[in-house]
Task: inverse folding
């Protein structure tokens, strides 16, 4: 039976759910989550994709988002899900949506979701942080000192008030990214870490505050932060290791090649 | 080679609010190779990106210029004080958002002034760019600084900072200017900067203030304004684009990543207005009416939506419901885009006859959030003075129909401080608003009917019949607004149903100074800017005390003061600062209309000449044209001014009650 919206028009049902991995690169790292959401809504329209709409007086396109990298942070692994009213070829959707978005909001992979809940298994993220003004040796030393600490309380002002959290406990692994550091033109250390998704979320900047508190590490300018991957967490290995078919799987494959 | 400042800017961006507004990269933005162009324009909107990006004028010129080979145009907007401070401490110049090139590297800096309150932001931009504030201090290597937009119809207060001003429509004018700049560069820059300006003044229709000398009388009034070069015109005429169908821009609308005040594809359905509201500068200076055809509009909407992905279409003009084919346009657009979740709106800044059938068409399948009516004056008497010919009965009837058709909220726009206005004219708004609510409740049988009264101080503008009028002083405006607030609250049963939003009187006084000022006002602007004035259109940045201080200091040696510029009535004989700038309107017609408006024996009305005989305002014969409308006759009956509310918020205003 056809559902009718409050305006009396038929509501087209969703028949396909596509999980989209996209990147926030270059100057688009300064886009906020809301900015990205508006761009994606327009991109979907511009690409003429058969997006489903909610019923009601103000129908909304059915697009859901996984927790977004904060304004100013770049990402190679952001996720969203699209609900379509007619089935589409994922690679075709990837190409059309990518072409309809500004440079820097780049669609990397589109895959059909199986029977798992939307955007499931996003348990942890791998981050890369360029630390302006911090030589590699100093970064290495700070990492060792931080990992040797059992607990570091930090505070952050959120919309719900001041939240306290243990920034150390969320960190699964942390190391100097030697290859990236060797290529850093200014001789700055580049750190790589895996952080568990918690509530409230411990963000990379919270960890920098914790690093400063424990080791006195101070940056000469704001850091360049990039999310490299997100997906299921392998506690034993201390890595984000998305399995096949899960969000983040593509990110992992890409790094291996 | 001109280098991008982005590598130096990027580390600062995490430290400022909404950094994405400074990064560019919008869909449909254009970055051309610097060396591929021989004429390069920086186009500026002197307000924040969120206000400037949607500006139609700038987007149109950007596309027109970039559409030409050998021409490059990039955009620049005002930076907020947090970034300004960082740019100063890090030595980063005013930059374009397209390729982050320094503004000083361009041949021309074109600045579009929709409002005079952007003048101090011009100075910030020039200063950050490293361009001397005074045009006289600039070298051949500096860009020409040109002003456009409605405020450019009296550029005298900023004449000192401008190399030139362009009156009227910019589409063809920028191309003429481009050609003259190209020829001058190719010829080895004969005569240097002055040589180029002389060519622009003589052959380009550009007003170049330095070629006109102003003398003053002992009492402070202007004695004369005379050209000081033989080849420049005694009076500079506005530019008028005659066939809008030949200039169907924007085709590739800019789609911002940052949030902006208007998020929609806008198409200007006609230019000009003949309603004859005496307070309305836009309606006077954009005559005659030139409509875009239904087919052109439909085509623009089709390609504009496809190119942008926007979900709303704005049908722009000064009174969109006056388009001779508005019903067909709205119906066909609604049909064509049905089931695509596309909204249509008529976000006119001014309002006109409009009926609920049309409103239904515009909101077909969508949400009825609000409607805006603009009676402008509270009493029938004052509405006659301003020639806004709407009676109270008309208003109640149309509002009632709107409520009955499903709307729950209307906005009512008014002005305070109109010529001949008394306390009673303003207080009359209160019973009017109550009647609106009462009629709405009766028509719907519901209690959740709301009306918002929005009111601001009237500012007399150049090139209007009220250009001679005394502006009402701020204390009187504030007292009337205060009394209105009390009157609205006085009657029980309406408290929550009627809201009041108002703009206080003092900012209007500064706007009045900048609107009708002469060249001596430049010193005030400079002093206020040096004292920290920025973003004067934003209540959180505006300081009346700062402008009062600046006026006193800058005018200390003059026989004139702030009141002289604002609350003083001018007489027929006085040489007005903009008399040598020709908006096409006959000065004697304006004067007669001013006299008619305040006539003791009752005001003479002026009809809309679209539908009634010509009343000889002077525009059409001067242009060798007549008004251009489509095949339709006048709308069947005179309807109420009414406009579907767009998404864009206006200027910040205080909320009361």
Result:
């Amino acid at each position: 039976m056809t559902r009718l919206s409050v305006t009396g028009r038929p509501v087209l049902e969703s028949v396909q759910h596509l999980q989209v991995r996209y990147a926030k690169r270059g100057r688009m790292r300064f886009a906020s989550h809301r900015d990205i959401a508006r761009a994606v809504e327009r991109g979907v329209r511009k690409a003429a994709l058969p997006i489903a709409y909610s019923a009601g007086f103000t129908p909304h396109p059915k697009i859901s988002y996984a927790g977004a990298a904060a304004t100013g942070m770049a990402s190679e692994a952001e996720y969203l899900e699209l609900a379509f009213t007619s089935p589409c070829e994922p690679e075709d959707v990837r190409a059309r949506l990518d072409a309809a978005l500004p440079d820097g909001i780049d669609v990397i992979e589109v895959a059909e979701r199986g029977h798992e809940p939307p955007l499931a298994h996003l348990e942890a993220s791998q981050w890369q942080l360029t630390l302006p003004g911090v030589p590699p040796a100093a970064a290495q030393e700070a990492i060792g000192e931080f990992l040797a600490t059992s607990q570091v309380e930090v505070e952050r002002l959120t919309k719900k008030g001041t939240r306290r959290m243990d920034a150390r406990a969320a960190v699964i692994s942390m190391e100097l990214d030697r290859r990236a550091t060797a290529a850093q033109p200014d001789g700055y250390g580049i750190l790589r870490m895996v952080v568990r998704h918690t509530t409230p979320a411990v963000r990379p900047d919270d960890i920098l505050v914790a690093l400063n508190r424990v080791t006195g590490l101070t940056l000469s300018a704001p850091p360049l932060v990039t999310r490299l991957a997100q997906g299921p967490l392998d506690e034993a290995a201390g890595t984000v290791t998305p399995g096949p078919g899960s969000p983040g799987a593509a990110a992992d494959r890409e790094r291996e090649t | 080679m001109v280098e991008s400042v982005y590598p130096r800017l990027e580390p600062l961006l995490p430290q400022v609010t909404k950094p994405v507004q400074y990064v560019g990269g919008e869909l449909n933005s254009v970055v051309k190779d610097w060396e591929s162009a021989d004429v390069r324009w920086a186009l500026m909107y002197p307000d924040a990106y969120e206000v400037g990006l949607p500006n139609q004028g700038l987007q149109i010129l950007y596309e027109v210029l970039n559409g030409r080979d050998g021409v490059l145009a990039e955009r620049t907007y005002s930076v907020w004080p947090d970034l300004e401070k960082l740019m100063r401490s890090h030595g980063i110049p005013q930059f374009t958002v397209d390729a982050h090139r320094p503004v000083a590297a361009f041949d021309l800096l074109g600045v579009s002034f929709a409002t005079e309150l952007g003048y101090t932001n011009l100075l910030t931009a020039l200063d950050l760019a490293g361009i001397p504030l005074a045009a006289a201090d600039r070298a051949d290597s500096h860009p020409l600084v040109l002003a456009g937009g409605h405020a450019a119809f009296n550029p005298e207060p900023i004449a000192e900072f401008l190399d030139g001003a362009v009156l009227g429509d910019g589409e063809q004018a920028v191309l003429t200017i481009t050609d003259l700049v190209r020829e001058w560069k190719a010829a080895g820059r004969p005569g240097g900067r002055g040589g180029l300006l002389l060519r622009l003044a003589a052959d380009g229709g550009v007003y170049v203030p330095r070629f006109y000398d102003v003398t003053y009388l002992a009492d402070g009034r202007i004695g004369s304004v005379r050209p000081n070069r033989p080849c420049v015109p005694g009076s500079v005429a506005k530019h008028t684009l005659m066939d809008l169908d030949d200039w169907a821009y924007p085709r590739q609308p800019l789609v911002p990543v940052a949030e902006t005040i208007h998020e929609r594809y806008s198409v200007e359905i006609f230019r000009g207005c003949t309603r004859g509201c005496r307070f309305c500068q836009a309606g006077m200076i954009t005559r005659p009416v030139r409509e875009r055809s239904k087919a052109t509009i439909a085509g623009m909407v089709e390609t504009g939506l496809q190119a942008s992905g926007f979900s709303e279409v704005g049908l722009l003009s000064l009174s969109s419901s006056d388009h001779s084919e508005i019903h067909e346009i709205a119906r066909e657009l609604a049909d064509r885009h049905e089931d695509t979740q596309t909204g249509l709106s008529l976000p006119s800044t001014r309002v006109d006859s409009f009926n609920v059938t049309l409103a239904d068409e515009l909101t077909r399948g969508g949400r009825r959030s609000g409607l805006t009516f603009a009676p402008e004056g509270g009493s029938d008497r004052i509405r006659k003075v301003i020639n806004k010919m709407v009676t109270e009965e008309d208003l109640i009837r149309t509002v009632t129909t709107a409520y009955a058709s499903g709307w729950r909220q209307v906005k009512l726009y008014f002005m305070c401080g109109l010529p001949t206005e008394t306390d009673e004219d303003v207080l009359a708004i209160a019973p009017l608003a109550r009647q609106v609510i009462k009629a709405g409740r009766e028509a719907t049988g519901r209690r959740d009917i709301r009306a918002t009264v929005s009111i601001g101080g009237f500012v007399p503008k150049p090139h209007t019949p009220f250009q001679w009028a005394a502006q009402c002083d701020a204390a009187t405006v504030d007292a009337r607004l205060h009394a209105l607030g009390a009157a609205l609250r006085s009657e029980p049963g309406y408290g929550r149903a009627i809201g009041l939003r108002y703009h206080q009187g003092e900012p209007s006084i500064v706007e009045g100074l900048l609107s009708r000022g002469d060249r001596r006002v430049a010193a005030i602007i400079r002093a206020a800017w040096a004292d920290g004035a920025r973003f004067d259109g934003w209540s959180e940045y505006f300081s009346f005390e700062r402008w009062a201080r600046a006026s006193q200091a800058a005018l200390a040696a003059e026989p004139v003061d702030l009141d002289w510029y604002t609350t003083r009535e001018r007489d027929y004989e006085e040489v007005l600062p903009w008399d040598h700038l020709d908006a096409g309107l006959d000065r004697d017609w304006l004067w007669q209309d001013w006299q008619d408006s305040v006539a003791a024996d009752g005001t003479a009305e002026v009809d809309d000449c679209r539908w009634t005989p010509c009343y000889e305002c002077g525009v059409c014969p001067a242009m060798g044209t007549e008004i251009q409308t489509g095949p339709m006759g006048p709308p069947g009956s005179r309807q109420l001014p009414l406009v579907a509310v767009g998404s864009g918020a206006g200027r910040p205003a205080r909320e009361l009650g």
In short: DSSP finds seven helices and 14 strands in chain A.
